[in-house]
Design brief:
222 residues, alpha/beta, Rossmann fold, 2 domains, six-stranded mixed beta sheet, two-stranded antiparallel sheet, 8 strands, 40% helix
């Protein structure tokens, strides 16, 4: 994803950020915007929520541009989307978010919609394919997430209900290897409830496995 070109249409932003666990993606973003007033700031996706220090990286007003590159294991991908939602919902600036992934846009919408329960905010979130050159990426027509909310998701000809916040939270910790007992104690939930959230969340996310781009990532599905 590394190149030295820059596209005029993205120069309206004064601040750029990238969320990714991939160093190459971050280097690529830096190269894309190297001629701008400041280099993109990298936001970690190790934690699901915006920290106090990270919050200080965002301006009090104006518009910012955030590129989210979804790659790695399933827990990393889900954490990156939760971090993205945390930024959109908790910063004072207006965020235009461009998500680059191997997943169909409908699936990105499927995961983000319970996290950002606001169509106005979702209207500034866009998706495109990861298998693009830098020039294609910056000239590509991104798909607006908000515009496909009504499409719904099907897996094996069955419509899948949207994830609840608890189902997503428990699924992430399950993929990270956290025990039911530990998560139950952390949230103060009965173990039986955690089992139910885990079962439902993992079942709804199973179809994502087919789009993970390497065997190690696929094995992160237990």
């Amino acid at each position: 994803m590394i190149c030295n070109s820059s596209l005029p249409s993205i120069k309206k932003y004064n601040h750029y950020y990238i969320i990714s666990c991939c160093s190459y993606a971050c280097e690529g973003a830096t190269a894309l915007f190297m001629h701008e007033s400041e280099a993109p700031k990298r936001i970690s996706c190790d934690q699901e929520y915006l920290s106090g220090d990270e919050l200080l990286l965002f301006p009090e007003s104006g518009e910012v541009c955030i590129f989210v590159y979804l790659n790695g294991n399933i827990d990393t991908i889900l954490s990156a989307l939760k971090k993205t939602a945390s930024i959109i919902c908790n910063t004072k600036c207006s965020s235009s978010v461009y998500i680059i992934s191997d997943f169909p846009p409908a699936w990105v919408s499927f995961i983000l919609s319970p996290l950002i329960n606001n169509e106005t905010l979702l209207s500034k979130v866009f998706c495109t394919d990861a298998n693009l050159s830098c020039e294609q990426l910056l000239s590509q027509d991104f798909i607006r997430v908000e515009s496909i909310l009504s499409e719904g998701i099907k897996y094996k000809n069955r419509k899948i209900k949207r994830l609840s916040l608890r189902e997503l939270a428990v699924a992430i910790r399950y993929y990270r290897g956290e025990t039911v007992k530990n998560f139950s104690q952390t949230l103060g939930l009965p173990a039986k409830s955690v089992y139910v959230y885990r079962r439902n969340g993992v079942a709804k996310l199973t179809a994502l496995k087919q789009w993970l781009n390497n065997e190690r990532a696929k094995q992160s599905f237990k």
